[in-house]
Design brief:
- The complex is a heterodimer of chains A (438) and B (256).
- Chain A has 438 residues and is mainly α.
- Chain A is built from 18 helices and 2 strands.
- A two-stranded antiparallel sheet of chain A has the order 1-2.
- Chain B is of the alpha/beta class.
- Chain B is built from 10 helices and 10 strands.
- Chain B has a 6-stranded mixed β-sheet with strand order 6-7-8-3-9-10, with helices on both faces.
- The radius of gyration of chain B is 19 Å and the shape is globular.
- In chain B, 43% of the residues are buried.
- Classes of the chains: A mainly alpha (438), B alpha/beta (256).
Chain lengths: 438, 256
C-alpha cells in the first residue's frame, strides 16, 4: 500500500512538474501576445494550409483541428496531429514567446493610454482572427457563429441558474420566443413569404432593422418569462424547475399549433442577416451588459437570494424585484440569442426547442462553471466544438459527451471555472515579472 | 416619542400561543435586552417585528409608522436592521460584498446603471465600498475584506453579520444572541463593538442574549420572557433580584 501511494505522489509531482515546465516560459506572455500568435497561425493557414494538408495526405484543410478526419479515418491521425502542430501549436507558441517583451511594452503603452482603447483593440484583433479562421470554409463560419450565439444563451442561463441559483428549465422556451419573434419581424417585413405575405419594406433596409427585430424577440421572451418569474416569488428548487419545464412545453405546443407562423412545419426563409460581424458584435454586447449587471450591487443581490433569501430580505434586498429582474433579463438575452440563431440557421421549427436543446444548454452552463462569465464562455465553446467534432461518432456522440460531463461533475461539482469575477480590463493587462524573485 | 412601539402583540403557531400580549417601547439610543429560557419565543418576537412573520394581533410602529404587513426589506430600509442567531451569511460571497449588498436600498443608479456601467454607478459603488471598508475597520476585520465568508473563523463571521447590519444605517439594531458560541476573548471584543455602536453611532439596540454578564453590563432595561409572556421588566438590578425571574431562569445560578 505504502509503495503505491508513494508512486502515486511521485507521479502527481512529475505531472505538476511537467505542467510548470510547459507553462513556465509563457508566464509573461500577455493576452495580446497570444492574439498575435493566433493571428500568425490563421494567416499561415490561409497561405499554406491547403498545400500542407495535401502534402500530409488529407484531401482538404482539416475543418475542426482534424478531429473529424481522425475519427473518420484513424490512419490519418498522425497527419492531422502534424497539421495542428505545424499550423497552430508551433506558430502560436513561438510568436507568443518571442514577441513577449515587445508586446508587453505595447500592451502597457496601450493600457496606460486609455484602457478602453486597449479593450476595443483586443476585441477587434479577436474578430480578425475569427474572421480569417472562418474564411477557410462555410462549415467553420457556421460553427463559429453557432458558438457565439451559444455563448449568449449559456451566459443568460447562467444568470438564472448560476448567479441566482434557481434551476430553470424554461430556456429553450425563451430562445424559441426570441427566434420566432425576430423571424416573424424580418420575414414578415422583408421577404415574400407564403404564410406571412409579401414584403412590406425593401430588403436593403433589413440590415438596419435587424437589431430592432432582435430586441423585439428579446422583449417577447421577457414577456413570456413573467409566467415563470411570478411563481418564483413563492416557490423554489424542484417545484420551480417543474414550473419552468412546463413553460418550455407550453411554448413548444403553442408554436406547433400556431398556423400563422407555420405550425409544426416551421418558418423558413429568414434573410441572411446574422453575418459573422453582426453575431460577434451582439455576443460582445451581451457579455459586456450581462457582466456589468452581475458585478453591480443589483446583480450581487441575485447571489444573496441564492445563498440565503431570508437574510437578503432582512438586508433591504427586494427579493421579488430581484427575481423578476433576473428572469426577465436572462430571458431577454435568450431571446436575442434565439433571434440570431434563427438567422444563422435560416429556418426554425418548434421541435428544435425541446428537451435536447435544454440538455445542451444545461450541459454548457454546468460544464463551464456556475456563477462565472469565463465558465459560460468555456462551456459554450467546448460543448459546441465537441458536439461538432465528434459528429462522425454519430449516435455515440451522446454517450461520450455526457460521460465527459459526469467526469467533470465528479472532479469539480460546480463546473470547470466557477464563482469568479470577469474583468476584461484586468485580463489584458501587460504581464510583469513577479517582484521579489530572481 | 418612542422609536419603536409594539402594542399588545400576540401570535399563534397553529393552536400554540407563541407570543402572548407582548408590549415594547424603545427610545432613541436606548439599549434593551430580552432574556428567557430556550423556546420562550424570543426569536419569534424578532421575526414578528422585522416582518418575517405577521402577528396574529397587535400593532407595531416604527417612528409612528405602522409596519405590520410590510415586507422585511421594507421594514429594514426604514431603519430596522438585525443579525441572526444562526449566522445567515451568503456562503459564496466575500466579506466586502456582504457589507456592500446591505447598501442595496440606498442605490440610486437603477438598472440602466447596472447594465451599462454608467459613471453614476461607479461613483455610488465606490462610495458604498468606502463605507463598507470603514465598517469593517470598525468591527475589526478589514484584513478579511476580500475573503469568502465560509473561510473565516466563527467570531469573524459574527462580526461580518454585525458590519452588514450596520451598513443599512439603521436607527435601531436587533441582535439575536450576538455572543453565542464565542470564546471569552471574542466575547469581550463583541461587547466592545456593541458599546462602540451605541456610543459612537447613538443607535438604539435590542438584544437577545443568554449570557447574563453581557445582558447585565450592556442593557438599561431588560425584559424576561417565559412561554411567550413577559414576566418581568426593569433595570439589571431589578431583574437580578426578581424572584419570578430567578425561579424561571436564573434559579440555578443563584444557588451555586
Amino acid at each position: 500500500m505504502a509503495v503505491t501511494s508513494e508512486t502515486l505522489t511521485t507521479n502527481r509531482d512529475r505531472l505538476s512538474l511537467l505542467r510548470t515546465k510547459i507553462t513556465e516560459p509563457f508566464v509573461l506572455v500577455p493576452v495580446l501576445g497570444w492574439f498575435f500568435g493566433a493571428l500568425v497561425a490563421v494567416l499561415l493557414e490561409q497561405l499554406i494550409g491547403l498545400p500542407l494538408a495535401r502534402a500530409l495526405g488529407t484531401p482538404r484543410i482539416p475543418a475542426l483541428f482534424g478531429i473529424v478526419i481522425a475519427l473518420q479515418k484513424p490512419a490519418l491521425i498522425p497527419s492531422a496531429f502534424l497539421y495542428d502542430l505545424l499550423i497552430y501549436v508551433l506558430p502560436i507558441a513561438l510568436v507568443a514567446k518571442l514577441s513577449a517583451s515587445p508586446v508587453n511594452w505595447l500592451a502597457a503603452r496601450l493600457f496606460n493610454f486609455r484602457s478602453w482603447v486597449s479593450v476595443l483593440l483586443h476585441i477587434l484583433l479577436l474578430y480578425i482572427i475569427l474572421h480569417i479562421w472562418s474564411d477557410i470554409n462555410d462549415y467553420r463560419l457556421l460553427v463559429v457563429r453557432l458558438i457565439l450565439v451559444a455563448i449568449i444563451w449559456t451566459l443568460s442561463l447562467n444568470v438564472i441558474n448560476g448567479y441566482m441559483g434557481e434551476f430553470s428549465c424554461s430556456h429553450p422556451g425563451f430562445i424559441a420566443l426570441g427566434a420566432y419573434g425576430a423571424s416573424v419581424f424580418t420575414v414578415g417585413l422583408f421577404v415574400n413569404d407564403n404564410i406571412l405575405g409579401a414584403a412590406i419594406l425593401p430588403e436593403s433596409m433589413a440590415r438596419f432593422m435587424f437589431p430592432i427585430g432582435l430586441i423585439l424577440g428579446g422583449a417577447i421572451a421577457s414577456l413570456g418569462a413573467i409566467i415563470v418569474a411570478i411563481p418564483s416569488f413563492k416557490t423554489r428548487g424542484d417545484y420551480l424547475a417543474i414550473i419552468s419545464l412546463a413553460f418550455m412545453f407550453m411554448v413548444k405546443s403553442l408554436l406547433e399549433n400556431l398556423e400563422v407562423v407555420g405550425g409544426a412545419r416551421g418558418l423558413g426563409g429568414q434573410p441572411d442577416l446574422a453575418t459573422l460581424p453582426t453575431v460577434f458584435i451582439w455576443t460582445i454586447l451581451g457579455i459586456w451588459i450581462m457582466n456589468n449587471f452581475v458585478r453591480s450591487t443589483l446583480g450581487k443581490a441575485l447571489n444573496a437570494v441564492r445563498d440565503g433569501e431570508i437574510a437578503a430580505d432582512a438586508m433591504t434586498v427586494n427579493t421579488r424585484r430581484t427575481k423578476f429582474t433576473a428572469f426577465l433579463f436572462g430571458a431577454f438575452w435568450a431571446g436575442v440569442a434565439g433571434g440570431l440563431f434563427a438567422h444563422v440557421i435560416r429556418y426554425v421549427n418548434p421541435s428544435m426547442f425541446g428537451i435536447q436543446m435544454l440538455a445542451e444548454n444545461l450541459a454548457m452552463v454546468y460544464f463551464g462553471g456556475l456563477n462565472s462569465v469565463q465558465g459560460s464562455i468555456v462551456g459554450a465553446v467546448s460543448i459546441n466544438l465537441l458536439g461538432e467534432a465528434l459528429r462522425p461518432l454519430e449516435i455515440y456522440k451522446w454517450l461520450v459527451i455526457p460521460l465527459l460531463l459526469i467526469i467533470v461533475m465528479i472532479r469539480r461539482p460546480t463546473g470547470l471555472i466557477s464563482f469568479t469575477t470577469f474583468d476584461f480590463t484586468t485580463l489584458i493587462k501587460p504581464k510583469q515579472k513577479p517582484t521579489g524573485e530572481v | 416619542m418612542a422609536l419603536l412601539k409594539v402594542d399588545h402583540m400576540t401570535h399563534f403557531f397553529g393552536g400554540l400561543k407563541a407570543v402572548n400580549d407582548y408590549n415594547l417601547e424603545i427610545e432613541p439610543g436606548q439599549v434593551r435586552g430580552l432574556i428567557g429560557p430556550n423556546g420562550a419565543g424570543k426569536t419569534t418576537i424578532f421575526n414578528l417585528i422585522t416582518g418575517i412573520y405577521k402577528p396574529t394581533e397587535g400593532e407595531i410602529t416604527l417612528e409612528d409608522q405602522q409596519i405590520v404587513g410590510l415586507q422585511p426589506h421594507q421594514i429594514a430600509s426604514m431603519g430596522l436592521a438585525r443579525t441572526f442567531q444562526n449566522l445567515r451569511l451568503w456562503r459564496h460571497m466575500t466579506v466586502l460584498e456582504h457589507v456592500k449588498l446591505a447598501r442595496y436600498s440606498k442605490i440610486q443608479y437603477g438598472l440602466i446603471g447596472a447594465f451599462f456601467g454608467t459613471a453614476e454607478r461607479h461613483r455610488e459603488e465606490d462610495e458604498n465600498e468606502r463605507i463598507a471598508l470603514d465598517l469593517l475597520e470598525m468591527v475589526g476585520i478589514p484584513q478579511h475584506a476580500n475573503q469568502v465568508v465560509t473561510n473565516l473563523p466563527y467570531g469573524a463571521q459574527r462580526r461580518v453579520e454585525m458590519a452588514r447590519a450596520l451598513a443599512i444605517e439603521p436607527k435601531i439594531l436587533f441582535l439575536d444572541e450576538p455572543t453565542a458560541g464565542m470564546n471569552p476573548e471574542e466575547l469581550e471584543q463583541m461587547m466592545q463593538i456593541v458599546r462602540q455602536v451605541h456610543e459612537e453611532l447613538g443607535m438604539a439596540i435590542f438584544l437577545i442574549e443568554h449570557r447574563m454578564r453581557v445582558v447585565m453590563e450592556l442593557c438599561e432595561v431588560i425584559q424576561t420572557l417565559v412561554f411567550g409572556k413577559v414576566i418581568a421588566e426593569g433595570g439589571p438590578e431589578e431583574i437580578r433580584n426578581n424572584p419570578a425571574v430567578i425561579e424561571a431562569y436564573l434559579g440555578q445560578e443563584v444557588v451555586t
